[in-house]
Amino acid sequence: MSEPIITLQNVSKSFGQNSSSIQVLEDLSLDLKKGESLALVGASGSGKSTLLHVICGLEKPNKGNVYIKGVNITDLSTDERSLFRGKEVGFVYQFHHLLPDLTALENIALPAMLSGIGKEEAFEISASLLEQVNLNDKKANRPNELSGGERQRVAIARAMSNNPSCLIMDEPTGNLDKKNVENFMNLLMDMVSTREIALIIATHDNNVSSRLDKLLNLE
Ligand SMILES: Nc1ncnc2c1ncn2[C@@H]1O[C@H](COP(=O)(O)OP(=O)(O)OP(=O)(O)O)[C@@H](O)[C@H]1O
Ligand SMILES: [Mg+2]
Fold first, then answer.
1. Model confidence, pTM
2. Mutation test residue for ligand 1: of 46, 95, 171, 219, the one with most atoms within 8 Å of CB
3. How far is the CA of 182 from the centre of ligand 2 (A)?
4. CA 188 from centre of chain
5. To the nearest whole number, what is the mean pLDDT of the chain?
6. Which ligand 1 atom is nearest residue 47's CA?
7. Distance between CA atoms of 181 and 173, rounded to whole angstroms?
8. Residue 157 phi, psi dihedral angles, 5° rounding
9. How far apart are the first and last CA of the chain?
10. What is the pLDDT of residue 1?
11. Alpha carbon of 207 to those of 20, 51, 170, 174, 177: distances in Å?
12. Rounded CA gap, 198 and 24, in Å?
């Protein structure tokens, strides 16, 4: 049987204290294996982003445990968690968060370098990823010189440059038209299945959720 990459056990998360506290996630459990994908849906405010942050260790749950590749990340210190995240997780935000002063090639090389790969190899990885997302001719362009769809392709490539075991995406297609969403999903699903990455996408877009293996509705 395929090994579990992401396991959540009875995870609860609330913000604030006492009477003003709001319960966002309640007793949530899930299991995602190598190469499996999950769509996270639910109304605005239902806790999709919160859950993604808990899974990648940016937020700590109040109760329960999160395991990534068998490591209980809830037990790690803040520093250990960021180090672990840098090696095992790729994250794509709705508005890509590419660094404006770096070229496409440099943006993609950065997570590889931060995960401990040498500069030369990181740039080789970056060049090969740029080719896989069909942006060979945009190597030297900065984000403001790219279209919305091109930026999101650079963002996928960047999220893969540390060779992660799981990829977490928060509304990655929010600002793309239907044709670009389809291109984006074709490319993404191809890369994810080749690399056997566990994928979670928070999305409002039915064209995205319908392509994934599992669905979790937070409401
Ligand atoms: N740091 C925080 N402190 C207090 N409340 C928070 C915090 N982060 C999120 N919340 C609250 O938790 C709830 C869930 O927020 P979250 O961002 O996870 O929703 P979402 O499902 O991602 O919504 P959207 O679809 O609009 O992105 C909201 O009511 C929000 O106000
Ligand atoms: Mg959100």
1. 0.91
2. 46
3. 21
4. 11
5. 92
6. 18
7. 6
8. -60, -40
9. 31
10. 53
11. 37, 21, 15, 12, 11
12. 24
Distance 123 CA to ligand 1 centre (A): 36
CA 176 to chain centre: 17
Map out the domains of the chain with their CATH numbers: 4-217 (3.40.50.300)
CA-CA-CA-CA torsion sign (3, 188, 8, 204): negative
**Range 50-61 burial, b when 16+ CB lie within 10 A, else e:** bbbbbbbbbbeb
What is residue 17's three-state secondary structure?
coil
21 lines ligand 1 (CB under 6 A): no
If one counts every other C-beta atom within 10 angstroms of the C-beta of residue 30, the result is 17
Q: Is 47 in the pocket of ligand 1 (CB under 6 A)?
A: yes
118 lines ligand 1 (CB under 6 A): no
> Backbone phi, then psi, for 188, in 5-degree steps?
-60, -50
Is any atom of ligand 1 closer than 6 Å to the C-beta of 37?
A: no
Q: Is the CB of 197 under 6 A from ligand 1?
A: no
110-127 per-position pLDDT tens digit: 999 999 999 999 999 999
